[in-house]
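Figure 6 in text form: structure in, sequence out.
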């Protein structure tokens, strides 16, 4: 083994648990489009996608064409939706690999229609309605005229209609009102399509947050993302979901040293000991995705106990204060994210709070130089 003892373990049994939790939560007959963009939020989307396909997921969501092609080349044959749409020149590959794409302009629709005609195929699209996210999509007020024009394009298959909630993870009154307004606008857009004789196979707006507890009877698909990987959509959901973290970022103690009072630790001397302390050096740093903002704030698990990051997070190293942890020695296991073998956890939500960010960024930030090791595969 030529690398360091720093790895990310991916527990596929935890993934199955979280998937089943979502499946039990959504209405009977409602499908699931698993969001596996950004390398399955840093978890490794090939292995994650294979496991989800074995679990019977309805479809997959990716960010752009290359991710969809990777899924197809790996043998995934479930529907795959390119959530960000295709760019000029990508239409033939999208159709050729039997990928579906989000659609949000008539110019885009006409180019897809022409490309599909040349291939003697149909282009599968999910029309994206902007109900209040303000990012991508046909304005909700323009939906009737858009669908009327789309209906005249013979090589376009309206596989779905899609929108995206902006505040479904905010459960205060203001957040709920905004989400309800978005849902109502989306329902009107879907009704407009149906009134024109269009019959989308999938209708979906619910992300991870909306999949838990929000009733959307006109939809038949949900798009879980962060919850599949074991993190809450926001702090408002604390105690509402019995999720299990899928990723465990772990390393080992590489060095132990006692330092005297007045000793500075790491760059810029942001920590100076006030008394004699026992400091452990651990081979992980911001180049691995352990955020520099965790300087003097982050906590890790060693022998089941918490140890505080001491001094500035380096590119390849952190130092932690293990004073008071009985029996600590070189080679001891260090859990930086996720749960240790005894079930003690440092959750992504905690790391995010310490770093001033969100769990999504914590997961996506774990770099490629950290090997992913997959545990408990179902096949």
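Output sequence:
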């Amino acid at each position: 083994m030529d690398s360091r003892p720093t790895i990310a373990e991916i527990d596929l049994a935890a993934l199955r648990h979280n998937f089943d939790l979502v499946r039990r939560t959504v209405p009977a007959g409602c499908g699931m489009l698993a969001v596996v963009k950004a390398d399955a939020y840093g978890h490794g989307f090939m292995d994650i996608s294979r496991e989800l396909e074995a679990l019977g997921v309805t479809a997959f969501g990716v960010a752009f064409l290359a991710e969809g092609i990777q899924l197809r080349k790996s043998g995934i044959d479930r529907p795959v939706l390119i959530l960000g749409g295709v760019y000029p020149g990508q239409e033939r590959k999208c159709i050729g690999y039997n990928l579906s794409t989000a659609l949000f302009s008539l110019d885009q629709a006409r180019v897809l229609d022409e490309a599909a005609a040349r291939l003697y195929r149909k282009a599968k699209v999910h029309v994206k309605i902007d109900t209040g996210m303000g990012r991508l999509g046909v304005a909700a007020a323009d939906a009737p005229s858009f669908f009327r024009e789309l209906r005249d394009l013979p090589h376009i298959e309206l596989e779905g209609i899609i929108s995206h909630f902006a505040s479904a993870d905010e459960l205060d009154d203001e957040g709920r009102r905004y989400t309800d307004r978005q849902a109502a606008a989306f329902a009107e857009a879907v009704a407009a399509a149906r009134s024109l004789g269009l019959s989308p196979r999938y209708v979906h707006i619910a992300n991870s947050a909306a999949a838990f507890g929000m009733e959307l009877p006109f939809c038949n698909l949900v798009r879980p993302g962060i919850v599949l990987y074991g993190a809450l959509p926001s702090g408002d959901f604390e105690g509402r979901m019995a999720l299990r973290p899928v990723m465990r970022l772990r390393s080992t103690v590489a060095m132990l040293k006692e330092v005297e009072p007045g000793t500075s630790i790491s760059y810029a001397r942001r920590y100076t000991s006030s008394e004699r302390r026992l400091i452990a050096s651990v081979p992980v740093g911001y180049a691995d995705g352990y955020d520099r903002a965790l300087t003097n704030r982050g906590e890790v698990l060693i022998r089941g106990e918490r140890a505080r990051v001491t001094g500035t997070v380096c590119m390849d190293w952190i130092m932690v204060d293990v004073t008071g942890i009985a029996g600590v020695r070189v080679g001891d296991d260090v859990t930086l994210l996720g749960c240790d073998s005894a079930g003690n956890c440092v959750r992504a939500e905690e790391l995010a709070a310490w770093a001033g960010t969100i769990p999504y960024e914590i997961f996506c930030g774990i770099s490629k130089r950290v090997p992913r090791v997959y545990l408990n595969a179902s096949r």
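Caption detail: The mean pLDDT is 97.
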